[in-house]
Amino acid sequence: MAPILQIKNLRKTYEGGFEALKGVSLDIEEGEIIALLGPNGAGKTTLISTLCGITIPTSGNATVGGFDIQRDFRAARNLIGLVPQEIALEQFETVGNAVRLTRGLFGKRRDDAHIDKVLGQLSLLDKKGVRTMALSGGMKRRVLIAKALSHDPRVLFLDEPTAGVDVSLRKEMWEVVAELKRDGVTIILTTHYLEEAEAIADRIAVINKGEILLVEETDKLMQRLGKKQLIVDLRDPLAEIPAALAGFDLALGAEGRCLIYTYDTQSERTGITRLLSELAATGINLRDLSTRQDSLEEIFVGLVREDAA
Amino acid sequence: MNVIAIWSIYRYEMARFFRTILQSFISPVISTSLYFVVFGTAIGSRIQEVEGVSYGAFIVPGLIMLSVMMQSISNASFAIYFPKFIGTIYEILSAPVNFLEVVVGYVGAAATKSLFIGLVILGTASLFVDLSIAHPLAMLAFLVLTCISFALMGFIIGIWAKNFEQLQLVPMLIVTPLVFLGGAFYSTSMLPPVWQTVTLFNPVVYLISGFRWAFFEQADVPVGLSLLAIAGFTALCLGVIWWIFRSGWRLRD
Lengths: 309, 253
Ligand SMILES: Nc1ncnc2c1ncn2[C@@H]1O[C@H](COP(=O)(O)OP(=O)(O)OP(=O)(O)O)[C@@H](O)[C@H]1O
Ligand SMILES: [Mg+2]
Description:
The complex is a heterodimer. Helix content of chain A is 34%, strand content 28%. Chain A is α/β, with parallel strands linked by helices. Chain B has helices at 3-19, 21-43, 55-86, 89-93, 99-128, 136-160, 164-180, 193-199, 203-216, 223-247; strands at 49-50, 53-54. In chain B, helix 2 (21-43) runs antiparallel to helix 3 and helix 5 packs across helix 6 (136-160). Magnesium ion binds at residues 44-45, 85, 159 of chain A.
């Protein structure tokens, strides 16, 4: 099946010449949850805004459900729900009216039963007649989600859905996302936190300075991040790894002065004890031991280097 | 055509109006009464008649036009500036609607409000002076067209404005003088010839003249020309808004 969202070489240069998106390409499959992970100013919001029609791309194109976001903007946008990063609500309007307006804008007939269902899903049903100014920040964010869901979108953009939301509510939000996924909604969310992406996303796209650095299944990325290295400094340099140690994931360091053992912190047995006793058995003298872990940043740096090479 | 979207915007905007319906009703009643006290009594005691119409009645069309133009501009400019200001504009921009649907919704609501106010003023004025309307349908047509065209202009101002000062600037600096110099309270034939020629460059003259013709069958410029002017102005505003939405100017940057 064709991806529900296809982004091809999308670029956005803001007025004033700042290039916020430097040719982003990404395919997103129907029904998956993808997290856009990146630091402040990476271009996450710009990417979402461009796909939703809030800003006009400078070049490149994208399709939603096969519809071009510019040429077939109606058909494309009909499929999309958007929860913006900044809370924007009219203070004097009631929750019910705010949600009703969005549904109407998407050309759907008024349907109070459906709106009640969405509000219920977000624990907002008792707030239906309340003016939005009387809501807490977390509730306001949920109103924005209710608005975005009011017209049954197939693709939902959540721009930092858990910013400023407390821990218990954050879990609740993840629940909502999981439930939407069960209904087959495709979800694109942004976050600064790897843990959040890990908790809910099927895939993670790392974005920085307007470029996607990597897109990987969450499990694989976490495995890569879960790898740790034990560095064994040797008293006497080795020419090669002794045959007795062939069973270990070992590499020989610079000038044979150290052995680098890569292991998985998340597996039950790291193999360190066994390695050390094998080393002693083969008569190799140790000078020092240290460990090292690739952080997300190091993976970025590695990627950028690969790019440059 | 996304008719439901148009209707949703229209209803949402009108709801704001109905929340403050009493204010919307009382303030034109009071201001109209004041105009009659000041203009009708003070000036009217010196100028009894203009071209066979009592001065009190003569100023009614101008008075209605003045309010309707100002109201249309401020209603429509605020209606689109406000969502830009508080950020809810994202909803409009990401909805499956084209520029015409957005405009019909917002401008339609703004024009409805000012039409309401125009009619309230007309009703109030008829309490003070004897009014006979020679061509009621033409009167209504001119009124509605003015509401729409000035609401369109207000819509452009609302998109253009970057702050509240700018929002007030155009109505104050450009529209008020044009209306006051547009024959709202006098016939341009009362001016020296040079100024009569100058006023022909004031678009508001054509609107007020046509509107007054619908009341008293007397006009400063031919009625056909008035209609042409208002149609041209409406088309111009629509063209500008079409360009704004196409280019994204001040909306999608
Ligand atoms: N309207 C604008 N005009 C000019 N530059 C902009 C505009 N909006 C964003 N930018 C710039 O584009 C870059 C990307 O911004 P964007 O909001 O997309 O980042 P982000 O990844 O969403 O960041 P955050 O995590 O802080 O929300 C930033 O450097 C920002 O300054
Ligand atoms: Mg952002």
